[in-house]
Amino acid sequence: MRSHKAIAMMVAPLLGILSLAACTGSGTPEDAEAVSIDQDWSKAEPLTIDVFDGPANYQGIQGGWFAKVVKDKFNMELNILAPAVAGGGDTLYNTRVAGGELGDLVIVGKGKQADELVEGGLLLDASPYYESMKNVSAYDTAVQYLNEGKDGVYTFPTVVSSLKPTEPSEGVDPTFGPYLRWDYYAEAGYPEIGTLEDLLPVLKEMQDAHPKADNGKPTYAMSLFKDWDGNVMTMAGQPPALYGYEHVAFAEAKADGSDYHGVLDPESQYVRALKFYYEANQMGLVDPESTTQNYDTMFAKYQAGQVLLSWWPWLGQSAYNTEQNMAKGKGFQIAPMQDQTVLSRGADVYGGGLIFGIGSKAEDPARIAAFIDWLYSPEGVESNSSDNAGAGPKGLTWEDGPDGPELTDFGRKAILEGGDEEVPAEWGGGAYRDGGSALNVSGVLQNDEDPRTGYPYNYKFWPSYQETAANPLTEDWSEHMGGATTTMEYLQSNDQLLVAPGASFTTPTDSSEIETMRNQVKATIVEHSWKMAFAKDEAEFEALLAEMQETANGLGYEKVLEVDLANAKAQNEAREAVANEFG
Amino acid sequence: MFLVVLPFLVLVFVFSYLPLLGWVTALYDYKPALGLGGSEFVGLQWFEILVSSETQLQQIGQVLANTLAMSFLGIATSLLPVFFAMLLNEVRSTWFRNTVQTLTTLPNFISWVLVYMIAFSLFSTSGLVNTTLHDWGLITVPMKFLDTDQHVWLTMLAWSLWKGLGWGAIMYLAAIAGIDQSLYESARIDGANRFQLMRYITFPQLMPTYVVLLILSIASILNNGMEQYFVFQNAFNREHIQVLDLYVYNIGMTGNSLSMATALSMLKSLISLALLIAANAIAKRARGTSII
């Protein structure tokens, strides 16, 4: 036996060294000479690229009309890898990164992720191509800002804008807001809503009056989901935004820099939101499936009219405000909550929180560079518009008209009626919605001016659309909201909007100790938050709150909060700086 | 002789010793993108964090309690397959016995993910059970079966029994078939009835098999797997469902702290080692020989 043991002792470390050596043996010589991307890629060899896409909600090969546009232009298919669909947090990211290849096209968060990818050699230096990337070069300031301190051009900004950073980036509707089923609210006699908690009796009355939706299923005032839970319970992170607060991890900061505290502070807006859900649940206003359902299930309920409150226009309105419903006066509109100061994000001159990058092992990096560049071109921005503000490709959904661009008949049906409209075969066929870009992030802000038309990309700004946009729903809403024509107009004229200048602030990477503490604390906060929202009585709610604070403190919450508060203040300084420079 | 053993030695190295090299991760601040070489060496920092705060220790204590509780519940119910096999053996009608056996063995081949889907469609707030109870007017508010902190250990035990009972009985059925028929004949001549046959012949004859299986299950007391608990976990039951393997997974993969998870999983090996030494000491006392 002894000799076997001796062999084992000798062999094991040897194998270890070999395996370690295998890990470090990468790195290819790089060609620094400029390579032009300017060529006709439609004639190139067919290619399928892996797109590691952080924000994507769809996994698999891109299909439909967007696939057709990309195929015609680049003879390329997009295989979308979506960590959000795969589930399990950063599991997919870590596994692929450890394997040394994240994807051919990479869309991840700037800051920590992007930095470690550059440092680990997983992103390609695109400087040889950058010179000929004409469209993205128009945003050179943002590209340079993003790659500051790096020895090349590794990352490209998303949703960059030429608008002022103090202008809302969101279009005619802000990202957040108390959106109610306006038709039921009208039936209830437009009751006054002074503050957040006043929503509860109003919603109760609306729900009692309509216990069942058209499909025969029960109606609930609110329906929650957990898919996007991160540092905190996402759904409880929304009401604070109605008062201009935003969460920088565990710090709750007012966007004008006037107030900073932790989310677990007993007076925080976050705890207030939890209490709000708790009270709503006591009144029977919360969908009991909230604890187990995912976003898709919840979205379907909004489409069927089973939910009466939405914190986001891009949820309630895009699910339910179809042309047909609105013609009957039905739909979600923002409620006149008297003390709200809704948070709005200013346009980002330096780009948003995500970046495009080329994988270091990409097969045909020049073609991917060309694709990225195209995403900043008018045609690219029009086509790659996955949210409800996007107009889609010219010729399919819209055309140039006498007063600027206008939606075609097909476009009106496809965009305004839920997207089930069948796309003509020459555009790839399939339902319009299914064919939309799965990238889920735009190169350029949709509110920016489209140089091809002279109007914003967002069709909601087009005069041709606004002329025809009035319907019984918006007319009734406008009548009771002092004649305002859009949500933004209402909020701005009532001084209920707080625009946080778009500073493209990047949170510095945590030390490993802080990061570990943070991950444990956030698991505790999310877990307790859900329990609190569904607590059976006041005493249990308070006990859970105390337990959450105690456990979080024991796991290092206060140390992490110190970092987050400093970050929140630094972000505010960056905002003030950018507002002074560009505002 | 050495050459004959060699392939097995290589397998043991590759699958049992080589992975231990991964423990080195616990000494680094491992970031997958940078590789081990590019990650910072932090020494014993993660071990210090694990023991530095009382809350952390409490969490680990709770996790160990869950792990041991569920393992012991499993062991405590390990006699059930024995009884099930004995009763099944007494069924005279062959087709009925075969049907029961097939139906109870089948769940073993269903993955936990599918088991959870079954559980979800039956017991979620809008599942079959709640809808039926609601339609019959027995309840007005849906009962929470899945997203509750009540009786987590017991419900988890019930699911694993449902899944494993028939499969666990197979070995005992085989053992029953191997019992010497002359024992039964002589007992019958002595006037034993069916229950006495079961009590005094079948049951004692199955004990050697049972004891072997029991010892094996005690050896893997910390390895109660994580698939079952992983699919059933949610914010409401996490406190009592997190077993050691799941805790390591949640910290490492979901929480993105791979190094700390490694440090934590080393704890498992230490506890196993302690259990082994304890078992060895008991065996030494009881039988006079040691296992190792």
Overall pLDDT confidence of chain A: 89
> Which radius of gyration of chain B do the C-alpha atoms yield?
24 Å
Helix content of chain A: 40-55%
In CATH terms, the superfamily of one domain in chain A is Periplasmic binding protein-like II
Question: Mean pLDDT of chain B, rounded to whole units?
Answer: 88
Helix proportion of chain B = over 70%
End-to-end gap of chain A: 79 Å
Helical element count of chain A? 23
CATH topology of chain B: MetI-like fold
**Sequence of secondary-structure elements of chain B:** HEHEHHHHHHHHHHHHH
Structural class by helix and strand composition of chain A: alpha+beta
What is the β-strand count of chain A? Answer: 16
- The assembly state of the depicted protein chains is heterodimer
CATH architecture term of one domain in chain A: 3-Layer(aba) Sandwich
Q: Which strand order does the major sheet of chain A show?
A: 2-3-1-4-13-5
CATH architecture of chain B: Orthogonal Bundle
The proportion of residues in beta strands of chain B is: under 5%
Could you name the ranges of chain B where pLDDT drops below 50 across 5 or more consecutive residues? none
Strand segment tally of chain B: 2
